[in-house]
Specification:
By secondary structure, the protein is of the alpha/beta class. It has 10 helices and 16 strands.
Length: about 350
């Protein structure tokens, strides 16, 4: 059995991150022991993925508290630095959720904050394993063909979580049951999280895969080459609308046209009952340079501007099932996701 990939660790009073901007060519870690380096790492996507960001938010509070002790900040400065961690990326609810969960422990000291962050990691990994089992069961009940062919978008494995994976965790669970024939890995423009990271994880675990351009996904689905699609989520609104990496909604539309399941999988910490629908989700806009250049080399005419929303929203009406560790909801008129939020928020 392949060793588990570890994207986040707490070592020597620092958050140690597997630098995902360097994969798959280099395996490099980055230690963040101050708020500036941590916020920069989050914004540069050294670490990404909603569940992983939840852990980063929790440990980030400890980083801020330790820096406060070293540099003698006043309380107002500490609060402001914690808020910087919380707000480093706006769309993924888990980053703010992780900060908010440990914030009440600050009065009890940094060790209490670290202990609670450790609990978040343990709970997330367990939740990922459970949702993978639940999601695999649902998919097997709704897809007749064996073995299964699946389309997935972006990266939702151990690199995006504290361990195992969410949507990719379901694929791993199905593969362990001998039910996966092939994974179609969308490259995921503009930063290739699918081609670089999901392919890396498929290779690591010996799961058969091919990498396809994002533009090929709809054709793959409509040609009958896939049996279902499964993606993750960075925020799930109460009505079942979900925000995920840009390009996700295109996969959902193709699945609806082809009549195959489109499944969204995420831990309950990603469910935001305070957000009524996708219309209320703040979509992060990133630098246009990510679209107009690659590794610093221009790929467009000089002066071209890039339009670069990092996420899109898939309406609940195009989602066959939303899976968390607490179960499965099949969205429909009047249906909310309260039952699979599990009281986490």
């Amino acid at each position: 059995m392949a060793t588990e990939i570890e994207a986040i660790a707490w070592q020597d009073d620092a958050i140690v991150l597997l630098d995902q901007t360097r994969l798959p060519g280099e395996v490099v870690t980055l230690a963040c022991s101050d708020v500036d380096s941590l916020v920069d790492a989050v914004r540069r996507l050294v670490v990404r993925g909603a569940p992983a960001l939840g852990a980063v938010g929790a440990y980030g509070v400890a980083v801020a508290m330790l820096q406060c002790q070293r540099e003698g900040w006043m309380t107002d400065r500490l609060d402001a630095e914690v808020d910087r961690v919380r707000d480093a990326r706006p769309t993924a609810v888990n980053l703010a959720w992780g900060v908010d969960r440990v914030r009440p422990f600050m009065a009890r000291g940094v060790e209490a904050v670290i202990a609670e962050a450790h609990r978040i990691v343990a709970e997330d990994t367990a939740a990922n394993r459970q949702l993978s089992r639940v999601g695999a069961d649902w998919i097997l009940a709704h897809c007749a063909r064996r073995p299964l062919r699946v389309v997935t978008h972006c990266n939702t494995g151990a690199l995006a979580t504290t361990g195992w994976g969410t949507a990719f965790g379901i694929i791993r669970e199905l593969a362990e049951r001998g039910e996966i024939e092939l994974v179609y890995v969308d490259e995921t423009r503009p930063l290739l999280q699918g081609a670089r990271l999901t392919a890396y994880e498929c290779d690591h675990h010996g799961i058969p895969y091919v990498v396809q351009s994002d533009g090929a996904a709809a054709s793959t689905i409509l040609r009958g080459l896939a049996d279902f699609a499964v993606i993750g989520a960075d925020r799930i609104a109460r009505n079942g609308d979900t925000a995920n990496k840009i390009g996700s909604v295109s996969v959902a539309l193709a699945c609806a046209a082809a009549g195959i399941p489109f499944v969204v999988a995420a831990p309950s910490s990603t469910v935001d009952l305070a957000t009524p629908s996708g219309e209320a989700i703040d979509i992060e806009m990133r630098s246009g340079d990510e679209v107009t250049a690659w590794s610093g080399v221009p790929t467009t005419p000089s002066g071209a501007r890039g339009f670069n929303p990092a996420f899109d929203v898939t309406p609940a009406s195009y989602i066959s099932a939303v899976v968390t560790e607490f179960g499965v909801i099949e969205p429909g008129p009047g249906v909310t996701v309260d039952a699979i939020a599990g009281g986490a928020l």
